[in-house]
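User: Hey, my collaborator sent me this sequence without any context and asked if I could get a structure. I don't really work with proteins. Can you help?
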Amino acid sequence: MTVQIYSRELGDFATNCYIVACPQTNACAVIDPGVPDPWVKRTLADHGLKPVAIILTHGHLDHIGGVAWVREFTGAPVLVHTADAPMLTDPVRNGSAAFGGLVTAPPPDRLLADGETITVGKLELQVLHTPGHTPGGICLYIRDGGHLITGDTLFAGSIGRTDLPGGSFETLIRSIREKLLTLPDETTVYPGHGPATSIGDERAYNPFL
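Assistant: No problem. I've predicted the 3D structure and written it out in structure-token form, which is a compact way to encode the shape of the chain:
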């Protein structure tokens, strides 16, 4: 099974938005649309993709600001982990109030739990609950081909910040060690910010691990 992954940095926080597509069916998922951006519409149109889900790795403002916009023109359901669901509609919880803004997203259509599978065409995205950056932070693992979308859990050479409400350094490190470092070294990591990396490189060189 092959997978197509398109990405672009969006917004002032340079949040990586991903479009994960099944080439056999053209079904896709839009992951972490941080702001409304024409790149999303253009990518969908250029490749004839049909969004079946808007998936959020967590509920912070820089990952949810474009959700309402994408949902309006795609009709795709919004998926987020149960623990981060309240952040979507609360500017205080999602952090936007602290920046003088009032970012919100529609309430989720589906609440996610650890270990469940999101089907996108013939692709299967496994939900890995990785709290620590936020209580409901998740990563998405595509076993076929070895792809892992980590949100703000794990970065190239770094980890997500844990000094925001609901964050815990100890919890985040445990999440990474128990859920991510158990994956094959050749697994490609697509983080919420910054360049792609691999589980093997992070195991060997990440100073936090």
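In plain terms: The two ends are 31 Å apart (CA to CA). You can pass these tokens on to your collaborator as they are.
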